[in-house]
Amino acid sequence: MRSVLSLIGLLVLSSCASTPPQNTTNICSMFEERRSWYKAAVKSERRWKTPLTVSMAIIEQESSFSARAKPERTKLLGIIPWRRASSAYGYSQALDGTWNEYKESAGNWGARRSSFSDAMDFVGWYTSNSNRINGIARDDAYNNYLAYHEGNGGFSQRTYNSKAWLIDVSRKVQANANLYSRQYSQCESDLSRSWFMRLFV
């Protein structure tokens, strides 16, 4: 009976972990709810030097913080569910090929796209490459998202200029990064305290 209850508990925890936080418009609320997310975000920021607020804004746009997000299926003859538009999957919506490149380049061989920690590390790795290849500042959420969507090759060729909708989306990503930055400045010091210190506040 005890093993059955343990299994049920694990399933419940797994289900909760794969669902988005209650308030995805507030980075402080998300990090309070998911302390492991905060630790993963800080780890990615320290490794790749991309502000965690930028990475969080990109993930919010890509998957709305859904661990198993996938593109919608196309319709055959307008009604029959058919193939998906791409192999994008998980928090970061990374494509199969790009994810494999990341695992090899970053040395994260066991990385999973449904892992928030791995997704944050991936976005940090990608934006670091954008900085190296195209000179995009790591805190520039607008241009980092354009390069993220179009690929660094496409960004250098300015393929985004013919996509007004993408320009609008990139502006939204920048606005969210700015919002997250303002919020984070109000809770960063509290989040950085250990659980022991937080008992006395």
Tell me what you see in this structure.
- There is one protein chain.
- Helix content is 64%, strand content 4%.
- By secondary structure, the protein is mainly alpha-helical.
- A two-stranded antiparallel sheet has the order 1-2.
- Helix 3 packs parallel to helix 6, helix 4 packs across helix 6 and helix 4 packs across helix 8.
- It is globular and about 45 Å long.
- 30% of the residues are buried.
- The N terminus is likely disordered.
List keywords for this structure.
2 strands; disordered N terminus; 201 residues; globular; mainly alpha
Concise account of the structure shown:
The chain is mostly helical.
Relative strand content? under 5%
Q: Ends: how far apart?
A: 40 Å
Helix content: 55-70%
Largest sheet: 2 strands, antiparallel
Q: Using only CA atoms, what is the Rg?
A: 18 Å
Give the SSE string: HHHHEEHHHHH
Q: Structural class per helix/strand content?
A: mainly alpha
User: What is the residue-averaged pLDDT?
Assistant: 87
The gross shape turns out to be globular
The count of strands amounts to 2
Low-confidence stretches: 3-16, 73-77
- By DSSP (H or I, 4+ residues per run), the number of helices equals 9
Side by side, the strands of the main sheet go 1-2
Write the layout of secondary structure elements.
Elements: H1 2-18, H2 27-33, H3 35-48, H4 52-63, E1 73-76, E2 80-84, H5 96-106, H6 116-134, H7 141-156, H8 164-192, H9 195-198
